[in-house]
Amino acid sequence: MKHKLNPNNWIQLYSDYLFNYTISRVNDREIAKDLVQETFLAALGAMKNFKGEANERTWLTAILKRKVIDYYRKINSNKGKAEVRINSSEEESEGAWLENKVADPFDKTAEDQMENEELGLAIHNCLSKLNTKQAEVFKMKTILNIETDVICNELNITASNFWVMIHRARTALAECLEKHWY
Amino acid sequence: MKKGFLFISCEEAMHICDKAQYDEASWWEKIELNIRLSWCHFTKAYAKKNNQLSIFIKQHKIECLKQNERKQLQKTFEQQLKQQQ
After folding, report:
1. A167 vs B18: CB contact, 8 Å cut-off?
2. Residues of B in contact with A142 (CB under 8 A)
3. pLDDT one-digit tens code per residue, B40-71
């Protein structure tokens, strides 16, 4: 089956997953944000090279991996010790080689990283199935640790509304993770 | 014992359990919840799943973009997308 690209949904569907993936590798929020943005923009430019062999997320992740590699290569070359090896040639157009699922040389320990990635993927997948507002409230409270009253003010909801959304989000997430992870 | 004193419904117990995940349940609510947990299997099952979810997210350091960061990203992306179309 050939996969298709639908860039209109990319931010909503994949931004959190890609951000989670990036921050675990660069440990810096601002850099992670920039790399995710660069990834989406590079992907737009590389759409013509998409062969449909990988799904959208795999393809975007492969572009991101290359961005992370480039980031470290730049840092290393700034320090005068470019030691990063990549297995693609510069002549290859961006996007064409990406479906080869290039191994990430910055993987910490392959197994830990893989488990974290799968978990991140499972959680973000489950979150993407939630109602948008519930997902937003849950992320703000649980992942970003924002105070309840700040969230209520920002989203213009009452505290009881907030707790109802949290409850629904938690119940749905627990069920979803039970099916796909536990 | 007055009706309602130390007795909470299952819905109330789940609500307190949710609040407890974020350290927002008062000590009194925690007592009420614990009493309910001692005999209600439904509340106990909910609390178990709920705790598991919190541990899961905390242990694996799940991260996400803030709302304004995502909006900014969306804006930049849409501008680029328009230019391309």
Report:
1. yes
2. 21-22, 54, 57
3. 999 999 999 999 999 988 887 889 999 899 99
